[in-house]
């Protein structure tokens, strides 16, 4: 696998290699710093002669507060930026279809694993770089992410433009009942807890106690679809703290306060540039789910069990074609 990636890198021109590195660097800095930069800029402007600009924006943001949970403002222009194709080619990334998705139905796609930054999920479902609309005609991918991002001035506009939505009950309700049919709502099930399990060569997903997405699927009659991104855990090398160490305690405290865990990681170069590791995101077959406005716990447990079985089947059915050996197992905790 390493020789194959090296061969692909050698075939690229210097310009192409530069564009890929700049595009990925932009994504990394956006993920890590754009929110803080937007807050800092607005605070700074409040103490200059340009103070009316942030004041007017804050007034408008309050008026526009619920837009992210009511369909957002996704734009094809941002989703089709050529930059996203350079990000795709850097690794490279690929989206694989295993079954049809009926555009007359709605779906909840559970994406695994989280990885450090969920780059596979973002590139596959919040951009058109991997050709989601070509693979699934009439179906619209809707990546749901941490709701706090949509409270950050300016940053929220960028997130909405890419077609991201808050992973909140009002947001999911709107997408699954008030936005017509053909919506594929993508949720990275493991969330912050799973990001701390991201290690090269490790395939661990955190979902035995994650049943909220199944309950939502039953409430709105949305079919469940397992998705696995092979290679997501390989693109960074995370610094793992031993349990009960100071670093571990700080991570847990930050996760409790902010909703996500800060990961210390290193990349291939410049510390933060990810490794050139292929990432293949495989979309599994839909699991039919009936509509139950008030599902019982037994129904939730039943479909959650079916989902875990389908995820394990998907993982083992495609691991060989995605570069994993027979010895690799999927660990569900």
Can you describe what's shown?
- The protein has one domain (2-332).
- The strands form 3 sheets. Strands 1-10-7-2-5-3-4 form a 7-stranded mixed sheet, with helices on both faces. A two-stranded parallel ribbon has the order 6-11.
- The longest helix has 33 residues, at 14-46.
- Helix 8 (155-161) links the parallel strand 3 and strand 4.
- It is built from 13 helices and 11 strands.
- It is globular and about 60 Å long.
- It starts with a helix and ends with a strand.
- 43% of the residues lie in helices and 14% in strands.
- It is an alpha/beta fold and 333 residues long.
- Helix 2 (14-46) packs across helix 5.
Tell me the number of structural domains.
1
Strand-pairing-aware structural class: alpha/beta
Q: Topology as H/E string?
A: HHHHHEEHHEHEHEHEHEEHEEHE
**Uncertain stretches of 5 or more adjacent residues:** 2-7
Mean of residue pLDDT values:
92
**C-alpha termini separation:** 28 Å
Globular, elongated, flat, extended or rod-shaped: what is the shape?
globular
Individual helix count: 13
Cross-sheet strand order for the largest sheet: 1-10-7-2-5-3-4
DSSP summary, beta strand count = 11
The share of residues in helices is 40-55%
How would a textbook summarize the main sheet? 7 strands, mixed
* Cα gyration radius (Å): 20 Å
Strand percentage lies at 5-15%
């Amino acid at each position: 696998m390493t020789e194959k990636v090296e061969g692909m890198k050698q075939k690229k021109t210097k310009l192409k290699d530069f564009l890929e590195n700049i595009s990925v660097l932009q994504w990394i800095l956006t993920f890590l710093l754009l929110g803080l930069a937007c807050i800092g800029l607005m605070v700074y402007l409040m103490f200059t002669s340009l103070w009316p600009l942030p004041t007017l924006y804050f007034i408008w943001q309050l008026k526009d507060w619920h837009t992210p949970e009511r369909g957002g403002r996704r734009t094809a222009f941002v989703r089709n930026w050529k930059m996203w194709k350079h990000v795709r080619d850097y690794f490279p990334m690929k989206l694989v279809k295993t079954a049809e998705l009926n555009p007359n139905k709605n779906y909840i796609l559970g994406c695994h694993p989280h990885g450090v930054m969920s780059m596979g999920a973002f590139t596959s479902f919040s951009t058109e770089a991997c050709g989601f609309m070509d693979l699934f005609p009439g179906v619209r991918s809707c990546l749901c992410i941490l709701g706090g991002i949509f409270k950050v001035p300016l940053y929220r506009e960028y997130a909405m433009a890419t077609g991201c939505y808050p992973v909140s009950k009002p947001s999911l309700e709107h997408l699954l009942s008030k936005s017509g049919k053909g919506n594929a709502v993508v949720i990275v099930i493991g969330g912050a807890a799973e990001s701390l399990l991201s290690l090269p060569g490790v395939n661990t997903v955190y979902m035995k106690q994650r049943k909220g997405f199944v309950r939502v699927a039953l409430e709105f009659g949305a079919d469940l679809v397992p998705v696995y991104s092979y290679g997501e855990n390989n693109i960074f090398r995370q610094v793992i703290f031993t349990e009960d160490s100071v670093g571990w305690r700080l991570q847990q405290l930050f996760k409790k306060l902010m909703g996500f865990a800060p990961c210390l990681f290193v990349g291939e170069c410049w510390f933060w540039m990810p490794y050139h590791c292929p990432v293949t995101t495989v979309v599994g077959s839909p699991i039919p789910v009936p509509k139950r406005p008030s599902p019982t716990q037994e129904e939730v447990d039943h479909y959650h069990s079916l989902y875990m079985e389908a995820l394990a089947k998907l993982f083992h059915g495609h691991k060989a074609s995605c570069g994993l050996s027979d010895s690799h197992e999927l660990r569900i905790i």
